[in-house]
Amino acid sequence: MQIEENQQAFWNNFPPQLQGILASAEEAIFTDPDYLELLTLAGETEAFYTFSDRVDGYPVKGFYYPVRFSDNYGLLFNSQIDDRDYLQSFKCFPTLRKLAADKQGNIGKTWIISGVLPRNSDTPLEILAQEAYQAAMFGKWQKVKKGNFLGATVFEIWQPPHSWDIEENHHAIIIFYPDVAAESEAAKYYEDWMKLFSYRNKIIWAYCESQKLRQGLQNSFVHIFQAGEILKQIPLKKLQVILGENIKILSQYASDLNHLEIQLHTIETNQKNYQEHLDHIIQKASKYGETDLLFLENFNKTVKQKYQLQIQQDIDSFSPALRVLEDVINTIRGIVEIEQAKRDRNLENIVAATGVGVGVASVAASAASALIKDITQPYPNQINNQQNIALPLANLIIVMLFSIGLGCLISGYTWKLLRYRR
């Protein structure tokens, strides 16, 4: 169900015409586990779906490049001002951003702003990058990192999520190319950037998920170490309810702990892939022009030294509580079973004692049957008939009271004896 929802969310990024084209590739999507260009798979001659339009008075063109990686979809959406004859100011950025704003992904999104610098520009590049970032309305300019790519100057701005909600993951790259040739060469790296930032965003996504799991485990952790208080003397009925509640907590706690380990494994795998692919990009780009992407390598160090380390510490910290909760549940279950066994034994004693009492009463009644007059026999019509009828009735009542009383006495004695012996 979740896979279908994610797939539908991905299709919603495309115009209806492109959705129709991609629908023909849906059945074949899972034939290759590594990398698929979806438009090529759908039978198109080009892997890029181009478009052109006029928005807010600007001539705009761009393309969609949908792919599938090993376990997730990816989309490169490009939009640019289709006018090479005139220099464009940063005022066009809100329009371009508006075109790309509705392209969503549940794992993450990276924005890349790029352009060719005019030859006579003397404004410091960091000032230009700040103006471009603010014109695109990405937020506050902070935590800026700088590098080089194909002789171009690169700035990275990333605001780590405050509450570790993936929606707050704002990641932007600004690239100023020295000339058109460098920009054209950079077009060959579309696939490389997509893979690299896919690994990066999956790391951030997995860490966000781990923080949600961590919060849930913390809430259960407090409950677990307070669970000893419930072992005091309380009614059996309430104890059974508490047992059911703790079994649910155990199930959820174990599931969250297992998913925390899965997120750690996800981060470890993508951290390795990220580093390997970054090395590939640096080696490939260095042959063409100056390339220094140390700031991207620093992210990988943060992943190893902070994210992975913290999650592993969380796993080590929360794991003992799982055993504590299991012990608490076993203790409560034992108490419930003992109390239930006591009830069952008391019931068995009562049944056995009652049986003995009924037997004794029956024997006593049989032995005293000679005292009972046949009250059904008709009597002569005499004046004292009333006295003759009362006599057998009195005898009957005496015998019944005697047998019942003797049975109750024997039952009580038998119940005490059985209880003492057990």
Provide key terms for this protein:
single chain, 422 residues, alpha+beta, Glutathione S-transferase Yfyf (Class Pi), Chain A, domain 2, 3 domains, four-stranded antiparallel beta sheet, four-stranded mixed beta sheet, 58% helix, 14% strand, elongated
Textual characterization of the structure:
Keywords: Membrane, Transmembrane, Transmembrane helix. The chain crosses the membrane at residues 350-372, 392-415. It contains 10 helices and 8 strands. It starts with a helix and ends with a helix. It is elongated and about 115 Å long. β3 (58-68) and β4 (73-81) form a beta hairpin. The strands form 2 sheets. Strands 1, 2, 3 and 4 form a 4-stranded antiparallel beta sheet that branches. The protein has a 4-stranded mixed beta sheet with strand order 5-8-7-6, with helices on both faces. The protein is α+β, with helices and mostly antiparallel strands and 422 residues long. It folds into 3 domains: 1-105, no CATH class; 201-341, Glutathione S-transferase Yfyf (Class Pi), Chain A, domain 2 (Up-down Bundle), CATH 1.20.1050; 348-421.
In short:
Helix content is 58%, strand content 14%.
Please compute the radius of gyration using only Cα atoms. Answer: 42 Å
Q: Give the overall shape, derived from the CA principal axes.
A: elongated
- The domain tally reads 3
- Helix % is 55-70%
CATH architecture of the largest domain: Up-down Bundle
CATH topology grouping of the largest domain: Glutathione S-transferase Yfyf (Class Pi), Chain A, domain 2
| Helix-strand string | HHEHEEEHEHEEEHHHHH
Strand composition percent: 5-15%
Report the sheet with the most strands, covering strand number, pairing sense and barrel closure.
4 strands, antiparallel
Determine the N-to-C terminus distance.
57 Å
Please provide the count of β strands. 8
Low-confidence stretches are 373-379, 383-387
